[in-house]
Design goal:
membrane, lipoprotein, palmitate, 6 strands, single chain, transmembrane, signal, alpha+beta, 9 helices, four-stranded antiparallel beta sheet
Length: 488
């Protein structure tokens, strides 16, 4: 093996030293103990569903179709196509992919062509010192040798940023899907409640007509008429308040589907949407399904890669350069073969003193990594919290719904008995009004509990990342409060 001469060893000493230290430019490892771990099972889950595997409810991920409501299907599709938040997320993804392309381009050779003309004089001119012209045309080449991984780390960070943006786009779609479903289901719940209150208004009007006839006949006092009129007016006020709430929900739905609220409308309809039972699966699958968790994870890894980029700034930059073309003092002779010119070179740049700029860059990158790691941990904790919230809500709402159904049955029976006894003069008007007030309150609470079950079901889908699979099929569809099954 030929030994390097002394001058060459001196010339290459900085490069050899940098190669020895190159291993220090790698990104720091993340302590597994600092990462959150998934629990063995959900506290609020059902043991029958603990063997679920991560998958989507449908081949196309259209989980909302398990509600078996064509109107809901159409609204969600419109929202996916026209929602502005989705378009903003898509634009940011395109921007991050462009930045990735730019980072990758830094690792490739740079080739360009150019031409210039100069007139110069003085000491820099050939013998004679007179002014002269110089014309040049040709191509140039440069390529930075990424011996220490700085460019690779930067490209990796940009790739992870693009992956994070892609996950955020998926999350934006999931959020819009869930918000559209929740708004639509809230609208249908308000339609049912409005119908109930207006039915009660009709009953109060019948009672008022009967009371006025009995007052005209002298059977009762005017106080009884005033009481019925009070209940009628209060119930009519409740109906108008529900109209106002429905209008607000309808306007919010218009924004979700990308329409102007003034031109958007959804007719009142029956609440026949099926209520699916969503299997939660094993907790660890939440970390693979939820796009916001995936986005936080990739942001953390990108921050880790940027620590490597900051560390690599301490090592030399090595670039190969080359040029080829023509140069002449006479423009007419520029492209003759005798005017050809070329050059090759190598450039080594090694930092010695920068006033602490590179050290500050490393500390800044490490701080960014700490923040990203904490953000990832927080996102995981929030994910499990949201799943547990919806699981416990569904379990307790199911029990509450059964209890409320018994209350509605009893209140309805009390109203029937009170009405019959009032018409026969056996009880006072106060007893009848109290019975009707109790029945209306319990029926409205039953509708609100049913609505909360639908909202919690959509919330669980969103908390699980929009997909599931169980041993019983994509989803278990139960009967809703109205008695309609998915196929009914």
């Amino acid at each position: 093996m030929t030994l390097l001469t002394q001058p060459l060893r001196i010339a290459f000493a900085p490069l050899l030293a940098a190669l020895v230290l190159a291993g220090c430019a790698t990104a720091p490892a993340i302590d597994p103990a600092a990462l959150p771990s998934a629990p063995a099972a959900f506290k609020g889950g059902d043991g029958r569903w603990t063997q679920a595997r991560p998958a989507e409810a449908h081949a196309d991920g259209a989980w909302w179709k398990t509600f078996s409501d064509p109107v809901l299907d159409g609204l969600v599709e419109r929202a996916l196509a026209r929602n502005n938040n989705i378009q903003i997320a898509a634009a940011r993804l395109a921007q991050s992919r462009a930045l990735l392309q730019a980072a990758d381009a830094q690792r490739a050779p740079q080739i360009g062509i150019g031409a210039d003309a100069t007139r110069q004089g003085g000491a820099i001119t050939p013998a004679g010192g007179g002014a002269g012209n110089l014309f040049r045309a040709g191509a140039n080449f440069s390529w930075e040798l990424d011996l220490f991984g700085r460019l690779a780390q930067a490209s990796n960070a940009a790739s992870l940023d693009a992956g994070s943006r892609e996950a955020l786009l998926r999350n934006a779609r999931l959020v819009v899907q869930a918000d559209a479903a929740r708004s639509y289901l809230a609208l249908r719940a308000l339609d049912a409640e409005r119908a109930l209150v207006r039915e009660t208004v009709g009953a109060y009007r019948d009672t008022l007509a009967l009371t006025e006839r009995r007052f005209e006949a002298g059977d009762i006092a005017e106080l009884d008429v005033a009481r019925v009129r009070t209940e009628l007016a209060a119930t009519e006020s409740d109906a108008l308040a529900l109209d106002r709430r429905r209008a607000e929900v309808e306007h919010a739905l218009a924004v979700l589907v990308g329409d102007v609220a003034s031109g958007f409308g959804l007719d009142a309809g029956d609440w026949n949407t099926a209520l699916p039972m969503i299997p939660a699966g094993v907790p660890s699958t939440v970390l693979t399904r939820r796009p916001d968790v995936d986005a936080a994870r990739q942001s953390m890894l990108a921050a880790q890669a940027r620590v490597g980029v900051a560390q690599a700034a301490w090592f030399p930059d090595i670039a190969l350069t080359g040029s080829g073309g023509f140069a002449s003092t006479d423009l007419g002779e520029l492209f003759k073969w005798s005017a050809r010119a070329w050059g090759v070179g190598a450039l080594l740049s090694l930092p010695i003193f920068d006033g602490g700029r590179r050290d500050a860059g490393v500390r800044s990158a490490n701080a960014e990594l700490d923040a990203a790691l904490a953000g990832y941990r927080e996102q995981v904790l929030v994910a499990f919290k949201e799943v547990e919230d919806q699981l416990s809500a569904l379990r307790l709402l199911a029990e509450q719904g059964e209890a409320q159904a018994r209350a509605v049955t009893a209140a309805s029976r009390a109203t029937v008995l009170s009405d019959a006894r009032y018409r026969n003069g056996l009880v006072s008007q106060l007893e009848l009004l109290d019975a009707r007030r109790s029945e209306l309150r319990n029926r409205r609470e039953a509708l609100q509990v049913r609505s909360a079950r639908y909202q919690a079901t959509v919330g669980l889908v969103r908390a699980l990342g929009g997909g599931w699979e169980s041993a019983y099929g994509p989803a278990l569809v139960g009967r809703n409060a109205g008695g309609r099954s998915a196929g009914g």
